[in-house]
Amino acid sequence: MSVSDPIADMLTKVRNAAMARHDKVEVSASRIKLEIVKILKTEGYIRNFKKVEEGDKEIIRIFLRYDDANMSVIHGVKKISTPGRRVYSGYKKLPRVYNGCGTVIVSTSLGVTTGKKAAEQMVGGELICTVW
Question: What pTM was estimated for this model as a whole?
Fold first, then answer.
């Protein structure tokens, strides 16, 4: 079965695994997915990740993070751009997620980065998703 939006599929798998309190989740690998997972690790939403080759395909194994009360650190994930509706923003109008408590992930000409770093570098781009 082919997936029309692989990034949304990855985010849904992470969201569902976090709600079900799984220790890890596996998604198919691509360059942009790997960059998004690196941002999730840097921002503290996941414990770690590992790129693994299983047979002829590559997967990303994502280890989820939980707090002391065994609640997921990821409270929500929302995809902004879709294949049918791309959403772009300049660096001055990048959205804030929960008044700065969340993160917006942006695909810029300098690569995939967070909204804060894109604003610091004065570059806009396509809004991929928000995580809080």
Answer: 0.92
Please list the residues that pair with 127 across neighbouring strands. Answer: 106
pLDDT tens figures, 15-34 = 999 999 999 999 999 999 99
Look up the CATH architecture of domain 6-131.
Answer: 2-Layer Sandwich (3.30)
Per-residue b or e along 22-58, where b marks 16 or more CB atoms closer than 10 Å to that residue's CB: eeebebebeeebebbbebbbeeebbeebeeeeeeeee
What is the structure's pLDDT at 2?
Answer: 64
User: Is 13 within 8 Å of 60 (Cβ atoms)?
Assistant: no
